[in-house]
UniProtKB/TrEMBL annotation:
GO terms for molecular function: protein serine/threonine phosphatase activity. PANTHER family: STAGE II SPORULATION PROTEIN E (PTHR43156:SF2), STAGE II SPORULATION PROTEIN E-RELATED (PTHR43156). It comes from the Bacteria. This is PP2C family protein-serine/threonine phosphatase.
Length: 392
């Protein structure tokens, strides 16, 4: 490169790197431009329990807690954390990696002493975001980063389910979404999905009947049918009707999927809903938590050519919506107590100040404590939406 040629942008250098070589490219860029002595990419595992360093075979280094310590603090708080190292003197900067509201992990960069000034930390934050976008894109061409997220092997049903998911969160000026699934490595029939355009945000939570592969196949068909109808421009009730017909045509009423469909008008906060089964919906407004009672309609695929009716309710700025699948509100403790009758409401109230991602995770953590074991007998899905209101 001659002196007259411009330096390539960081984004251009990352885009030019082979998908499997993003970490090595990041190390080179930060070493050349900022004198970085060490660069580590850590990705959150499927259960959000640990952050795993991406390295060579078998693709991970020693994991660190996702909720504690300097790295975990950067991930949970979604802000940079700086460690001051003494021997040898250096600064270790931990930066959250988030793509459009979906938390992927943390980038840790070791800088010489005195180099972690505010401007440099700001530049590193932008770099971490750019790297996150490239990791998401690279997942289309390499298994490296998907493998790095795993503490153990996924079941085949779980592999199918995670491929269906849009992510574990998203954010826009009007809203923030956080979601969580357990048992993360053996999930079968539970699923959440969302999509937004200029006017509407659509969210669905689906609980496919059965276990394992059977449940995963049923849910895959249901979610695919709902997406096909949504992308065809159909309204919410018609989306439910089309998916109902697709599931019934395949299973003849022997298997069905309980689904809650929500569509929020981003300009007004008016929510259209179709309750086709068992997921429950809660709203938090001020210090009050209430269950939104919708007219219960038949699950998708139970009977042929079921008609579905839309209902409406209103969101106000700073409202929070929480959707929980049957595996959450229908789980009993060893003493026979339903989680939804008391413990769930307590968790929802206690986590009101937390961001949606942490609130959704805490609901499932509370479920595990209520049940008394990590080995949940039913899939559990939680989606948490914070509604900020239309742009000023």
């Amino acid at each position: 490169m001659t002196a007259s040629e411009p330096l390539p942008s960081v984004e251009a250098e990352l885009r030019a790197a082979p998908p499997h070589a993003l970490v090595a490219t990041a190390r080179r860029i930060l070493a050349d431009r900022l004198g970085a002595q060490e660069v580590t990419l850590l990705l959150a595992d499927y259960g959000l329990a640990v952050l795993q360093p991406v390295s060579h075979l078998p693709y991970t280094g020693e994991p660190v807690p996702a909720q504690d310590g300097p790295v975990g603090s950067a991930f949970v708080r979604q802000s940079p954390v700086i460690e001051v190292l003494r021997e040898p003197a250096a600064h270790l900067v931990h930066l959250p990696i988030t793509v459009r509201g979906d938390r992927l992990g943390v980038l840790s960069v070791r800088l010489p002493e005195g180099a972690a000034d505010p401007e440099t930390v700001l530049q590193l934050g932008d770099f971490a975001t750019a790297l996150g976008h490239e990791v998401v894109t690279a997942d289309q061409d390499t298994d490296l980063y998907l493998q790095a997220r795993r503490t153990r092997r996924l079941t085949l049903a779980a592999e199918m389910q995670w491929q269906l998911l849009p992510g574990r969160g998203c954010a826009r000026e009007e809203y923030v979404i956080g979601a969580h699934l357990e048992p993360a490595y053996s999930i079968g029939g539970d699923n959440f999905d969302w999509s937004a355009d200029a006017r509407h945000l659509t969210i669905t939570v689906t609980d496919g009947m059965g276990k394992g592969i059977e449940a995963a196949l049923l849910t895959s068909l249901t979610v695919g049918a709902l997406r096909n109808a949504r992308r065809g421009g159909l309204g919410l009730a018609d989306q439910a009707c089309l998916a109902d017909q697709a599931v019934y045509a395949q299973y003849g009423g022997k298997m069905y999927a309980s689904t809650l469909l929500l569509r929020c008008d981003l300009a007004t906060g008016t929510v259209t809903a179709v309750d086709a089964g068992s997921p429950q919906l809660f709203r938090q407004r001020g210090g009050h938590t209430e269950r939104i009672e919708l007219d219960a309609q038949l699950p998708l695929g139970m009977f042929e050519e079921t008609d579905y009716v839309e209902q409406h309710f209103q969101l106000e700025p700073d409202d929070r919506l929480i959707v929980v699948s049957t595996g959450v509100h229908g789980t009993r403790s060893a003493g026979g107590d339903l989680y939804g009758e008391g413990a769930l409401r307590q968790i929802l109230s206690a986590t009101r100040p937390a961001p949606p991602h942490e609130a959704a995770r805490a609901v499932v953590a509370g479920l595990v404590e209520h049940f008394g074991s990590d080995d949940l007998v039913s899939d559990a899905a939680v989606v948490c939406l914070d509604w900020h209101g239309p742009p000023a």
